[in-house]
TrEMBL record, chain A:
This is Acyl-CoA dehydrogenase. Keywords: FAD, Flavoprotein, Oxidoreductase. Its cofactor is FAD. It comes from Streptomyces pristinaespiralis (strain ATCC 25486 / DSM 40338 / CBS 914.69 / JCM 4507 / KCC S-0507 / NBRC 13074 / NRRL 2958 / 5647). The keyword DNA-binding does not apply.
Automatic annotation (TrEMBL), chain B:
One of its GO terms (molecular function) is flavin adenine dinucleotide binding. Residues 175-282 form the Acyl-CoA dehydrogenase/oxidase C-terminal domain. Keywords: FAD, Flavoprotein, Oxidoreductase. Its cofactor is FAD. Belongs to the acyl-CoA dehydrogenase family. It comes from the Bacteria. This is Acyl-CoA dehydrogenase. Residues 6-96 form the Acyl-CoA dehydrogenase/oxidase N-terminal domain. It holds the Pfam family Acyl-CoA_dh_1.
Length: 377, 306
């Protein structure tokens, strides 16, 4: 049980902190909400700055501990969020790095790290959400390409993406998990139509993607044909593992801001609210420790986060919603004012128990895979 | 940073688990229940010989020279098997109250629960942790027996406070949290074991999601509390210790209740051990630091962060 960082890790932290202190004041202000091309340009420019300073590959190459330090420090300094680069840096990139050929790594990783190419995730379908393995978008081999037809949904950042990590069915006759293939598809390929969907928060951050006989070169397949489910599990373990570490830091900061606000407006004198905020403080401290626990496990097992990710994701998504419910208590009537960031965050937090595998699905995973209980129906 | 247990820590945990399995298995537990909590002094001395109480004393004082993380692992095992007795108080008194370190004395603390003393009749010495943080021997000529919620922890009420207690020592709070953690982990395991073997509607009840999800939530609470307790042991920060107690109390109490639910009617019997975990967890949740107090400490930390 050692929570001390090595001298080299502390040196990395100090250098990063210096660099952030010098760089962040020179960044342009974030673009207005809803302006997707501006958002893309902003996120890409930030990724380019990171790349030029030598931090571009931190999500792919660095040890889990350095990645944790990176997420902690950037969040503490108030640096921009990965934003539109989320899928590229935290999903598709790690998957390509782990499962791609040398040519594929060469072709795709550089542009991801330099912020030149944006990726989106085409997994979910109208009839395949939690039951992802029932996906039906079909791909038929035709010479040196796959011809893809079907529909994806809830595809975040689809509007500005260059590439899509796409799950398709290549063998309809095989058992469900054995007929799936992982493809990288260009979003500007003929036959791809993107229709934005409005979220309950009013934004259009995800979309429906219609695919009509889209030709995807066979060379853009990652992993073997029909081995896509295994490749997908690699991707999902990254998503549930350390991807949320920076957000825990952000939530802890928000909590201190809420406490300050509560003291200023008198809410703090209400012992019920005060104790509620106190409990959240213990909760988020523990969640940070859980992240460190998972990172230590990941570092020891070669980088792929384990089922600790499901424990974390369940508790974190719940705690985040409780945090923003508490902000509403402190805001009073301001909780109805959509111009306030906490009010908007409260709405966004509603997606946390759904996206990246619902809470019910995480409980199934823990019950079946960790506790060894019989499969439910 | 490597938050995982070291090889030595794993070996320590294994050793303690084996010792307790041999000396305090199910039969010994039920015998203790039948004795209504009266302590087995021979076992107490064996625990002393094995270093339970002197664990954190320096080697030149006859201790093992280990730290809070190791003590936490030991007390987690204690919590798993519901070992009775004022273990935390005696552990903390080692080095200052004669006989505590080697288990020849049983030391109980009058500051652990407000106005109540545990194991009063078995104790050789009653101490109070005053504001200087160290145990002060106090003279308690008489105390009135109170029927105890927990069959393994006899309670006596003191006519008047012997000495004004100070804030609870961090180690006392943390080791109590570690016992809660062990109990929470055990309740999760027992619930899962039962859910795999009890068949209704032609299948193990663990195959029903309503049951499986209860077990998953027990696991989540246990593992979150574990991260909190272990980290607090490494850092020794008082606020973090209070937070760890808060989460461990919740994991143990709710874990035992959910375990009872999974056990069905069997869970409501005297014969099953489920109620023993629940009752002790309820008692530990009041020891040293209540939920209300722990939440206030967290709130104070938040308020002073700016
Ligand atoms: C903000 C946001 C962004 C997203 N971004 C992307 C993206 O970029 N790319 C992508 O591919 N997908 C994305 N998703 C989709 C997300 O992965 C799915 O919404 C999620 O997996 C749930 O699927 P569903 O919406 O079809 O719900 P359903 O699977 O229809 O679930 C409905 C309800 O049934 C429950 N349920 C389903 N099956 C079970 C079961 N076996 N046991 C118990 N309960 C069950 C669920 O928990 C839920 O409560 C995003 C979703 C959100 C909210």
């Amino acid at each position: 049980m050692d929570l001390a960082y090595t001298a080299a890790e502390e040196e990395f932290r100090a250098r990063l902190r210096d660099w952030l202190a010098g760089t962040l004041p020179t960044l342009p202000p974030p673009p207005p909400a809803g302006d997707w091309p501006a958002r893309r340009a902003h996120d890409s420019a930030w990724q380019r700055r990171l790349y030029d300073a030598g931090y571009g590959n931190v999500h792919l190459d660095a040890s889990p501990t350095l990645r944790l330090i990176f997420l902690e420090e950037t969040e503490k300094a108030g640096a921009p969020y990965v934003g539109a680069n989320f899928v590229g840096l935290l999903h598709a990139g790690p998957t390509i790095a782990a499962e791609g050929t040398p040519e594929q790594r060469e072709r795709w990783l550089g542009p991801i790290l330099r912020g030149e190419e944006i990726w989106c995730q085409g997994f979910s379908e109208p009839d395949a959400g939690s039951d992802l393995a029932s996906l039906r978008t079909k791909a038929v081999r035709d010479g040196d390409a796959y011809v893809v037809t079907g529909q994806k949904i809830w595809t975040s950042h689809a509007e500005v993406a260059d590439w899509c990590e796409l799950l398709v069915r290549t063998d309809p006759g095989a058992p469900r998990h054995r007929g799936i293939t992982w493809l990288a598809m260009r979003m500007d390929a003929p036959g791809v139509t993107v229709r934005p969907l409005r979220t309950l928060a009013g934004s259009t951050e995800f979309a429906e993607v219609f695919l009509d006989e889209v030709r995807v070169p066979a060379a853009d397949r990652v992993g073997e044909e029909n081995d896509g489910w295994r490749v997908t599990m690699v991707t999902l373990s990254f998503e549930r593992g350390t991807a949320f570490a920076g957000e825990v830091v952000a939530c802890r900061r928000t909590l201190t801001e809420v406490a300050t606000r509560a003291r200023a407006n008198g809410c703090w004198d209400d012992p019920v609210l005060r104790r509620r905020l106190g409990r959240l403080h213990a909760e988020f401290t523990a969640l940070w420790r859980l992240v460190q626990w998972n990172v230590s496990e990941a570092a020891a097992t070669g980088g792929v986060p384990g089922t600790g990710g499901s424990v974390f994701k369940l508790r974190y998504s719940q705690a985040r919603q409780e945090l923003y419910d508490a902000t509403a208590e402190v805001l009073g009537p301001g909780a109805l004012d959509l111009s306030l960031p906490w009010t908007r965050e409260r709405l966004s937090s509603l997606s946390y128990t759904i996206a990246a595998g619902t809470s019910q699905i995480q409980r199934n995973i823990l019950a079946e895979r960790v506790l060894g209980l019989p499969k439910g129906r | 940073m490597d938050f995982r247990l070291s090889d030595d820590q794993r070996a320590l945990r294994r050793g303690v688990r084996e010792l307790l399995a041999g000396r305090f298995g199910r039969e010994a537990l039920r015998a203790a229940v039948d004795r209504e909590g009266g302590l087995d002094r021979k076992l107490w001395r064996e625990l002393g010989d094995a270093g339970f109480f002197a664990l954190r004393l320096p080697e030149d004082e006859g201790g093992a020279g280990l730290g809070l993380p190791e003590a936490v692992l030991v007390f987690e095992e204690v919590g798993r098997v519901l070992l009775p007795g004022p273990l935390v108080a005696t552990h903390l008194a080692a080095g200052s109250v004669p006989g505590a370190a080697d288990g020849t004395a049983v030391v109980t603390a009058a500051s652990e629960l407000p106005s109540l003393v545990q194991h009063f009749e078995d104790a050789d010495t009653v101490v109070v942790f005053a504001s200087d943080g160290v145990p002060h021997r106090v003279d308690v000529p008489e105390a009135e027996a109170v029927p105890s919620l927990d069959p393994l922890t006899p309670l006596h009420r003191l006519p008047r406070p012997p000495l004004t207690p100070g804030p609870p020592p961090g180690a006392a709070v943390l080791l109590t949290a570690a016992e809660q953690l062990g109990s929470a982990a055990r309740s999760t395991e027992e619930a899962v074991r039962h859910a795999k073997s009890r068949v209704q509607f032609g299948r193990p009840v663990g195959g029903f999601q309503a049951v499986g999800h209860l077990c998953a939530e027990m696991l989540v609470r246990t593992e979150t509390a574990r991260a909190a307790v272990y980290a607090a042991a490494v850092g020794g920060d008082l606020t973090e210790i209070a937070g760890a107690k808060l989460l461990a109390d919740e994991a143990a109490v709710r874990g035992a209740r959910d375990c009872l639910q999974v056990f069905g009617g069997m869970g409501f019997t005297w014969e099953s051990d489920v109620h023993l975990h629940l009752k002790r967890a309820l008692l530990r949740a009041r020891r040293w630091l209540t939920t209300a107090r722990a939440e206030e400490i967290q709130a104070q930390a938040l308020a002073s962060a700016f």
